[in-house]
Design goal:
Blueprint: H1 2-15, H2 19-39, H3 41-65, H4 73-112, H5 117-142, H6 147-172, E1 176-178, E2 182-186, H7 187-207, H8 213-241, H9 256-280
Antiparallel strand pairs: 1-2
Helix pairs in contact: 2-3, 3-4, 3-5, 4-5, 5-9, 6-7, 6-8, 6-9, 7-8, 8-9
């Protein structure tokens, strides 16, 4: 038993997080996501709204630590409006609601105080685009024909990338990819993620979506690129604001944004791929 604890502690130390709680939380989240989709997309949309509210709270708190004061209320209202418009107006609703939300929040901030307006307005626009707008594409996938296979594809891309990058980097990582942004990311981890995600996506397209396996392989490569970029973006935000994690709500993961950073950048690409498949009947 002591040997098992020693091995677990060694893995945790090198990986920078607790492995067993992380796996448990991931499985629980997957159960909640697909359970909600199985019951009704409306319940899934409600869960997305809760996640967005928590994510906005996290980033507003992180901003405060970094010296940027933002009120949460206008961001919560803007995010709710964007989700509502997306649900009823699809991609047009998502686009138009973003164009409506941003100027209204900027005016609100100006009326609140002109002090540090550029810094506060820029930070607010980033929040609106980064969280509710990108999350809107997850909602579009869920509020479309055959939502479960589409969300499953997104989950496979993100989870395979994160999992195999994690273990490949843990076992073979020697060459740091972006030490000034994310010190634990390695080229070896990226290579492992690329191989596993490409194979996983090809299998999903062939056996779940009943489509061309090679198309899945292309999507797998795309998913690794977008997921890695999403992870690096969030790492850059945390480094700039001088916070280790965006929150502590998810044991082994940190905050909501620490868990969904890869998903946020991958969801628009997955939605676009399915739109192309439908348009060109691939």
């Amino acid at each position: 038993m002591d040997d098992i604890h020693s091995i677990n502690n060694a893995i945790n130390k090198r990986a920078g997080r607790k492995l067993i709680p992380s796996i448990g939380v991931s499985l629980l989240l997957l159960g909640i996501v697909f359970g909600a989709l199985r019951l009704t997309p409306v319940l899934f949309a409600f869960l997305i709204w809760i996640v967005i509210m928590l994510a906005i709270r996290e980033i507003v708190t992180a901003y405060r630590i970094g010296g940027i004061e933002l009120p949460g209320l206008p961001l919560y209202i803007a995010a709710t409006g964007i989700l509502w418009a997306t649900w009823f107006g699809n991609i047009e609703g998502l686009s138009v609601s973003l164009a409506v939300a941003i100027p209204n929040v900027m005016v609100y901030l100006l009326l609140l105080s002109p002090l540090d307006f550029v810094k506060r307005a820029t930070a607010a626009v980033f929040v609106i685009f980064y969280i509710p707008f990108l999350f809107g594409f997850v909602l579009l996938l869920a509020h479309s024909p055959k939502p479960i296979p589409k969300i499953f594809t997104l989950v496979v891309l993100v989870s395979f990338n994160d999992t195999f990058a994690y273990f490949s980097g843990l076992l073979f990582g020697r060459h740091h990819m972006a030490p000034h942004i994310s010190p634990k990311k390695t080229w070896e981890g990226l290579a492992g993620a690329l191989v596993a995600t490409t194979i996983g996506a090809a299998l999903v397209f062939a056996y779940v979506l009943d489509d061309y396996w090679w198309l899945g392989a292309v999507v797998g490569v795309m998913g690794v690129i977008t997921a890695t970029c999403g992870d690096l973006i969030e790492s850059a935000v945390k480094r700039d604001l001088q916070v280790k994690d965006m929150g502590t709500i998810l044991p082994g993961h940190g905050g909501i944004l620490d868990r969904v950073d890869s998903l946020l950048f991958t969801a628009p690409s997955v939605w676009f791929v399915f739109e192309l498949i439908q348009h060109f009947k691939l």
